[in-house]
# Entry
Amino acid sequence: MPTPVDLQAWDYTLPDECIARYPASRRDRSRLLHLPLPDGPTTHGLFDRLPELLRAGDLLVVNDTRVMQARLEARRHTGGRVEILVTAFSGHHAEALARPAKKLKLGQTLTLRSGIEATVEREAVDGLVELRFSEPVADIMASSGELPIPPYLQRPEERADRERYQTIFAGPLGAAAAPTAGLHFTDELLRRLGTSGVRVERLTLHVGLGTFRPLRPEDVDRRKLHAEWYTIPEACAEAVATTRADGGRVIAVGTTSVRALESATPTGSRLPRPGAASTTLFLRPPDRLRAVDGLITNFHLPKSSLLMLVACLCGRERLMATYAEAVTRGYRFYSYGDAMLLL
# Structure
């Protein structure tokens, strides 16, 4: 029988001033809290000390997805405003969060500010609609879309966000939100990691908004999250196998990298298989991670699936105590905030 989950046990108090509304002045000058595994006292410094905490033969696995300029504004024929947030697209078609979703009916036409039209092809299911645009969705987002920076930043998108809300690894377009643990890396830091014998490999998981939505009891009971598409390249799978064979450690950069690696790893194995697939995997204690030995991650929202995933490495009580310490020490939380290394 699955272990019952009390969502209140995953809540914590976060003062408003701890929410980072802007990134650090330099990517690698954010702070880094090191939580040793399986035990030991926390240590504190800046993210650019990461090479000192790793060793030759370790492998970092990063998510190279690129955030879409997914936020679009449209009007219904009545003149009513509609906010559209593209979560997935192909050609002229898109799945999107829409607000107000309930007012969008099958066959209804929406008009963007540019004059481009979108037709409702499926009415809202859990807030998501399917739309068919009169032009390719990628072109529309590039010309008139805005980056979907998180609502808790309590500000509109600014020019600097176009750079700072993308990782330096960003390649394939498809994410509705940034894989934020990767935001702390710089080219200089990668050079130093390479010099110290640490390898970096890439996978792709297109981050969807379901990962960041507040959990409901029914979400926990069914043990599934909204589906996200991932790809594990041959080079990444081979690097994990080589690292394991040589006694090195596999460290995921971000919970999205964990989700992809664990989804691709067969039961009873520690080696992910290369390939592409969709995952609804929901990791929470007492689940054990098989594909990774450590994790670099930001500080996550209360009662979130991401918080539960991180606790698979260190346990709920230790994680919540560490979060309380981070609040006391003035760490910055969420997407533009500071980082943790669990290793």
In short: The two ends are 30 Å apart (CA to CA). Residues 241 and 271 are 6 Å apart (CA to CA).
